[in-house]
Specification:
Blueprint lengths: L1 H8 L4 E7 L4 E7 L5 H10 L7 E5 L2 E3 L15 E6 L2
Parallel strand pairs: 1-5
Antiparallel strand pairs: 1-2, 3-4, 3-5
Pfam family, one: ubiquitin
Protein name: TINCR ubiquitin domain containing
InterPro entries: Ubiquitin-like_dom, Ubiquitin-like_domsf
């Protein structure tokens, strides 16, 4: 049963939003639970947004680069905050 659940999770998709604080912009993204923050950065680059020297936050917590969407407990409809490092 666990193997089935894991195999189905790769087809699961979350519709989240990334709030770019510096530009006052809310960008919709479709991600998978297995995507890391580096994958999210690649999605943003495809949208024309640079995320260099910026940090992701979710529920007032910094999300590390290697963390997956699932590990960070990000759910469908969540909003991530992307803030420039100062």
């Amino acid at each position: 049963m666990e193997t089935l659940r894991r195999s189905l999770s790769r087809w699961k998709k979350y519709h989240i939003k990334v709030h770019l604080a510096d530009e006052d912009l809310l960008l919709p993204l479709t991600v998978r639970p297995t995507d890391t923050m580096m994958d999210l950065r690649a999605h943003l680059v495809r949208e024309g947004v640079t995320s260099w020297k910026k940090t992701f936050f979710y529920n007032a917590r910094v999300i590390e680069e290697h963390e997956t969407v699932k590990e960070a407990k990000i759910q469908n409809g969540s909003v991530l905050l992307l803030i420039s490092d100062k």
